[in-house]
């Protein structure tokens, strides 16, 4: 979700962590001077013997393996991609998804049409080849989240989304969720397959889901429309996500709190809802029109959100499942590493200032020869939360009911209670408060894990892994499991090592205390989404850079060798937009990106850009683009 404007920033992310977990400010300098921090950077003579914090922008292009030339970091009405590449619109908000979807009509209020059309604010993108299990890079399914809506950009004369009518609210609910598209590359150009049997819209309006795993059926999940505590209509605020080795998609429920309103003191869930930021005033008008969003009328409904949802996109009739074993918080996403012993490990960030980094280890192992046997792997396992130590290690602390403080004495009567209130359980375990963990991804090439920490302007006390106060530009951590590189890395281990990979900010501004390779060609503000190409290089998408007068977009960097932390800028979003969903095809020749909330901060009547149509009367539309190299080669060689 965008944080370009302070009012949204505050609403989106009021810190709700009341605990006083580790503060180790005095050890930070020791950590920053560790030799490991400059591992890789030392390979260039420019930094050898130089100071700790690099503020120069010395040229060192030869150090990078990325073959494109950086583009300027300049805000503009349209998008820009590096020379030699094409960025073509694949699908826009309102375009047809299912076979009988009507054509998009600008400004129409029509939930029945929207529920068949491409939703709003595209975020996570997952590419799954067709046929299933193949490596086909020219034909596949594209699975895309729709995180939230900007009512003020969807309809005329509506400055405040809270003023949306019941019909508009229904349309917004239909515009949330997920889309599954079948796509095909013909003569070098990607197109959506019209009338595909796989095409599907998942929405918060009508898609029935089941709640599975250890919390399913608990009294705290029962509502007036579901006495079983196992059913729910839809999914909300679907931010990032992930893919599993068995060909399913993981859809994260992030800022679900904002859809609910009413007095939480009138429920039995006050402590739980307070920790998740549910407030009397909702962010949307829905609470005025539908009882399910009013906690005074439907007090347990919020407990049905904040989970990870698993979807089998190869089966268009499949019922999505909310996997409670992965915990309940503001899930940014969940990304899976398959250990060489076939253990399944999923990483997840809780995107809020001062919240935590999690790792889930499934109880059951992956069976490469039996897809059906894998379909319920995420049903059971152990969730862990990260505690960063000053000696360069990070402990993964298991969150287990009945162990340590997670007992009835502290209000945890069952395993379900621990999962429903994951944040409070992690508080009691003493997890490290982070600067808003967004995408967290294991790198299959070097076996390490990269953690995007987007920013935390409210930080007053640094800690070892979040070393800057008022961290407005964010940073990237690198975690190293034991066992070796790549597939040898043991992601089930309870202790990893960690390093700071880069500290965002403008190297020309010494106050930023940024750290990159001295030859960095771009500077990063607010790292959010991440993709890793098949050479193991990071593609970092940003959300929030415009407050520094640079556009959001896509940076890329090597992680190993002379180009480590040498960032280059590949794609710039149009004005007001953030960059989401980077996803490569297996051959590395296509990079899909999602441009979310173009023209954010303006209105339908006077949009700051009409990207991508640039036609009178047509509002800006969130869209997915396919980026290919004009010579047909791999992205960035
Ligand atoms: Fe929806 Fe954490 O960005
Ligand atoms: Ca974000
Ligand atoms: Ca995000
Ligand atoms: Ca990602």
How would you portray this structure in words?
The chain has 637 residues and is mostly beta strands. The chain has one domain (3-629). Helices cover 9% and strands 26% of the residues. It is built from 10 helices and 29 strands. A 9-stranded antiparallel β-sheet has the order 14-15-16-17-18-22-21-20-19, with no helix packed on it. The model is unreliable at 2-10, 22-26 and 35-59 (pLDDT under 50). The structure holds MU-OXO-diiron and calcium ion (CA) (3 copies). One calcium ion (CA) binds at residues 1, 438, 454, 528, 543.
Features:
637 residues, mainly beta, six-stranded mixed β-sheet, 10 helices, binds MU-OXO-diiron, dTDP-glucose 4,6-dehydratase
Layout of SSEs?
Blueprint: H1 6-12, H2 28-32, E1 80-81, E2 85-92, H3 111-114, E3 122-129, E4 139-146, H4 151-154, H5 166-175, E5 177-186, E6 189-192, E7 200-202, E8 208-212, E9 231-233, E10 238-243, E11 249-253, H6 270-275, H7 286-289, E12 308-311, E13 321-323, E14 335-338, E15 344-349, E16 357-362, H8 371-374, E17 381-388, E18 393-398, H9 415-420, H10 422-429, E19 437-442, E20 449-453, E21 475-480, E22 495-503, E23 527-532, E24 538-542, E25 553-557, E26 568-572, E27 578-584, E28 590-596, E29 623-629
Parallel strand pairs: 8-13
Antiparallel strand pairs: 1-26, 2-29, 3-4, 4-5, 5-6, 5-7, 8-9, 10-11, 11-12, 12-13, 14-15, 15-16, 16-17, 17-18, 18-22, 19-20, 20-21, 21-22, 23-24, 24-25, 25-26, 27-28, 28-29
The structure holds MU-OXO-diiron and calcium ion (3 copies).
């Amino acid at each position: 979700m965008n944080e370009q404007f302070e009012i949204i920033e505050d609403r989106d992310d009021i810190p709700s962590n009341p605990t006083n977990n580790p503060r180790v400010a005095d050890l930070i300098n020791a950590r920053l001077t560790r030799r490991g921090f400059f591992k890789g950077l030392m390979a260039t003579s420019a930094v050898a013997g130089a100071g700790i914090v690099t503020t120069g922008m010395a040229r060192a292009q030869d150090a990078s393996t990325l073959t494109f030339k950086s583009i300027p970091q300049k805000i503009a009405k349209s998008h820009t991609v590096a020379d030699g590449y094409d960025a073509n619109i694949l699908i826009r908000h309102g375009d047809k998804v299912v076979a009988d979807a009507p054509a998009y009509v600008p400004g129409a209020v029509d939930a029945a049409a929207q529920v068949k059309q491409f939703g709003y604010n595209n975020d996570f993108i997952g590419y799954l080849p067709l046929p299933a299990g193949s490596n086909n890079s020219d034909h596949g399914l594209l699975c895309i989240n729709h995180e939230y809506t900007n009512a003020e950009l969807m309809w005329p004369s509506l400055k405040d989304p809270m003023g949306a009518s019941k019909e508009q609210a229904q349309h917004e609910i239909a515009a949330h969720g997920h889309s599954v598209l079948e796509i095909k590359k013909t003569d070098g150009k990607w197109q959506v397959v019209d009338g595909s049997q796989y095409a599907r819209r998942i929405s918060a309006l009508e898609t029935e889901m089941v709640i599975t795993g250890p919390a399913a059926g608990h009294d705290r999940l029962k509502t007036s429309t579901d006495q079983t505590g196992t059913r729910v209509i839809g999914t909300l605020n679907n931010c990032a996500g992930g893919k599993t080795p068995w060909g399913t998609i993981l859809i994260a429920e992030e800022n679900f709190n904002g859809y609910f309103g009413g007095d939480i003191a009138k429920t039995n869930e006050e402590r739980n809802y307070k920790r998740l930021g549910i407030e009397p005033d909702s962010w949307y008008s829905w609470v005025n029109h539908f009882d399910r969003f009013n906690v005074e009328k439907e007090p347990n409904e919020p407990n049905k959100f904040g989970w990870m949802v698993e979807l089998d996109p190869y089966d268009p009739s499949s019922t999505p499942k909310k996997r409670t074993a992965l915990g309940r918080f503001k899930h940014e996403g969940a990304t899976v590493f398959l250990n060489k012993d076939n253990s399944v490990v999923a990483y997840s960030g809780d995107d809020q200032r001062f919240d935590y980094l999690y790792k889930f280890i499934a109880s059951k192992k992956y069976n490469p020869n039996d897809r059906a046997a894998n379909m319920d792997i995420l049903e059971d396992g152990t969730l862990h939360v990260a505690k960063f130590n000053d000696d360069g290690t990070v402990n993964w602390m298991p969150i287990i009911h009945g162990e340590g403080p997670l007992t009835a004495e502290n209000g945890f009567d069952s395993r379900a209670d621990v999962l429903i209130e994951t944040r409070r359980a992690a508080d009691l375990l003493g997890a490290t408060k982070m600067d808003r963990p967004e995408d967290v991804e294991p790198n299959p090439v070097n076996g390490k894990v990269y953690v995007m920490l987007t920013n935390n302007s409210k930080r007053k006390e640094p800690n070892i892994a979040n070393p800057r106060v008022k961290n407005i530009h964010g940073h990237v951590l690198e975690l190293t499991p034991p066992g070796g590189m790549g597939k040898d890395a043991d992601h089930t281990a309870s202790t990893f090592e960690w390093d700071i990979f880069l500290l965002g900010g403008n190297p020309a501004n010494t106050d930023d205390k940024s750290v990159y390779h001295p030859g960095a060609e771009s500077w990063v503000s607010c790292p959010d989404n991440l993709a890793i190409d098949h050479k193991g290089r990071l593609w970092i998408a940003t959300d929030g850079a415009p407050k520094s007068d640079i556009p959001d977009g896509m940076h890329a960097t090597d992680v190993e060798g002379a180009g480590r932390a040498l960032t280059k800028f590949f794609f710039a979003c149009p004005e007001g937009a953030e960059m989401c969903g980077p996803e490569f095809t297996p051959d590395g020749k296509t990079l899909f990106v999602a441009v979310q909330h173009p023209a954010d901060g303006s209105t339908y009547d006077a949009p700051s850009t009409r990207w991508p149509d640039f036609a009178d009367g047509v509002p800006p539309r969130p869209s997915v683009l396919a980026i290919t190299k004009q010579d047909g080669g791999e992205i960035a060689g």
